[in-house]
Amino acid sequence: MNRSNLEKISKGKKEWEEKQLKNLLKKAPERKSVFKNSSGIEVGRVYTPLEIQGFDYLTKLGFPGSYPYTRGPYATMYRGRLWTMRQYAGFGTAEETNKHFKYLLSQGQTGLSVAFDLPTQIGYDSDHPLARGEVGRVGVAVDSLKDMEILFQGIPLDKVSTSMTINAPANVLLAMYLTLGEMQGINRSLLRGTVQNDILKEYIARGTYIFPPTPSLKIAVDVFEFCSKEMPKWNFISVSGYHMREAGANAVQELAFTLADGLAYINAALERGLKIDDFAPRISFFFACHNNFFEEIAKFRAARRLWAEILKEKYSPKKERSLLMRFHTQTSGCTLTAQQPMNNIIRVAYQALAAVLGGTQSLHTNSMDEALCLPSKQSVKIALRTQQILAYETGVSDTIDPLGGSYYLEWLTDELEEKARKYIDEIEEMGGMAKAIEKGFIQKEILETAYHYQKEIEKGETVVVGVNKFKEEREEIKIEIFNVSKLEETAKMQIKKLQIVKRERNKSKVEEALCKLGKAAEKNENLVPPIIEAVKAYATLGEICGVLRNIYGEYRAPNIL
Amino acid sequence: MGLVEDMLKGDKRALSRVITLVENNSQNCEEILSKLYPHTGNSQIIGVTGPPGSGKSTLINHLVREFVRKGYKVGVLAIDPSSEFTGGALLGDRIRMLEVSLDSNVFIRSMGTRGTLGGISRKTKEVVRVLEAFGKDKIIIETIGAGQSDIEITRTAHTVIVVLTPETGDDVQVLKAGIMEIGDIYVVNKADIGNAEFMVEEIKALIASKSSNVSKEWTAPVIKASAKKKEGIRELVEQVEKHWNYLKVSGEINKLEERRVKNEVVDTLNRKISNYLLSKLESEFGKEIFDEILKRKESPYSVVNRLIKKFLC
Amino acid sequence: MMAEKIRVLLAKPGLDGHDRGIKVVARALRDSGMEVIYLGIRNTPEQIVETAIQEDVDVIGLSILSGSHMYHFPRILQLLKERKAEDIVVIGGGIIPQEDKEKLEKMGVKAIFGPGTSTQEIIKKIKELIGNKKN
Asked: Which of A17, A177, B137, C106 has the most beta carbons within 10 angstroms of its beta carbon?
């Protein structure tokens, strides 16, 4: 926009402010003196070309599928293929989960998503004292290769893509999966899927770490290295901001900390001697989508642009694909309310819309009753239907980045990018993400935001419908409750299975494999190959992690308050 | 009062209750402490101090484990600051990290400072006495950082461990003033990172330069440790034992104990007498007395002397 | 004379690592003048009860979001009984269905707070439960 035009607009705006606005404000002041979004950014009354002076279309936006990818990672986006509707689900035994998988596959689904129980996620066998009460609870229990065999019994692994939400022992579960593939006669290079393998965020939120940060990072990079050499179709990391957001981070913090985590992994992989173009294209991301509609859309757009810019500046990769950010989105669990749970359907719908307008590659929509219990079948279905209505009825998927060019949105995208970049610089100055986590900096920043948000709700400054405004007498809510006695039964059965595996395997082979693993760890070698050997000998997850616990030590996070 | 008897029989819950009564300065606090006093005086009190982030807590964890392994009964007191505004406190439980905290021979208690610095050291000293009476062989006091209160607390200790780390490069410079004079043992923690060797030499030099005005025969050792890698822990335990032995053989312990007891008497005296006289001040002279001083008709000294003459002589 | 303080032990039993809620509560309780001992994540019932006794707390507050509440709450109540420390008040929060909530309250859990509970409500309840003998 040229100068004379801008001057005209500026003059016009002043006139409008003098003639119309001033009088009106005198008679009827606005609802609040300051309007702010979740990141504390003050939002203006109205946006015009004046707020985005110097906005250069080609550097800021470009075109879909080209640098800086603000408008989307692909040239046709949803006109070519809709986002993947991926619902994370499933708990109970390996047998039950296997049945569920087969049902999903018979319905035409090709992607499987495995949720593991907490003992598995933290590297304990089901008979460990700390596993009591947790076996089979939030996912399936996997103690040894045997459980993996049951989990995928009758499912040819070359026909499916499997996403595993596993972090600290990602190397062990990956080893089990590829061994199972080999047992089915499928070469590991043909296997498709994802391991989350994002250990850094576990120290900040969620808490399923085992070892101290340094060896953990080494273990994560082992998986990078192994996969980039032997499993070209495998996504070896999903850098996750979701859990940090759920822990209380605002949009800017989620954006900054996730990208800073991503950079930490890149640096660690480069230190290992990997080449940027060999692994950067396979890094994927995972974000939350919260309530503030425009802030969230701006966040997604800023994320793609900032990632592309930083990668280009820092690592100058040769492949374009290395700059391109792909991400999965889940609507925000912490925005769901236990009060008037039906309202959650609406929240989820708005959040899903924002995620799609932000250009997500896949989407999980939460079920309305998740603040009350594990979701019921009915509510899971509504959540999926929400996505389908969005995709097929609203027309939002017909044009790429339809909000691009909005004065407000572009201004906001710039703001978020700038604020996130500041944070990332600050973290770099501390010596990177691992150091910032060790210092407790990230945890403190997030808790500060979470506490502030809670106080705002309690003061009524932030409105949560049904919680601090428009409240109703608690209505009677009918929920299906998961059968606890059945779970106790599950745990008992699981432990029995584990005992049988331990009895029937070749003991000396197990010992030999575990010993080899220990030696490899001491020599700082890549641990995936010796873990594969151990898995084949039916060493258990707990035994394998136990060897590493002895060497690396167990991490107990400082309680940062 | 069955509580004291139960505690002396080894009841942990009773011990815990007694500590609360002492901490709250409840009415029978002095009575309790008097009953316990005959049972005190047999423990080694170990103060651990050093700047925040030096890894004190992890080190203490290992120390406790080693002590327990040697068959000692161990008590730990961890001090955190209370909020001046609300009186509340977050007692971040730094020292409950190891399985050892479940050992029947270990007792760990967190305390908020609850007000003045003087208050904290007094209450800490009293709680230490309670733990002594309970039969703890080793009592460790951990404080959060190297402030005045830390130095105050270390006056109660027989053995003071100063923990430093090469991570914060200017430690030695900063700490030269206060902390370098109080340590009986120095630990350069997190020795796996950076300039540990350099720091060790620097501390040794500092100790040597100060040793001229220290009459003790004990030269503070400087230990390199890595709590992470469990290195230097054995050596630290050895030195703590050695220092305890030295105190006993040299007779230094008698001097320290004498000093402690004297301090207790003097502190109690100061507190009680001043409370007593303060309570008399207004009733005797009325509120106008301060006006008199303001108008320079009286001086603080003349007023206090009059008080003493009237009530103490 | 020093004021007595309400002492509260906050902990997450089991392996669940979602600690946003309990940390926010910890801060709010501190700001209301209580002394809060925060044990963090991954605690066994034995650790929690032993700590509660050593720290002589008035209240134990537990947070569980993984669904393992029907194991951990009863176990902690039982251990308190074994240690003759039933006078320590047990409260909790998390995603706990109404039916389980009623069962737990019958067993002796004094209050269970669901999502959306304000920290003021929790503070009020604790003061009510402990009585006004302390500030």
From this structure: A177
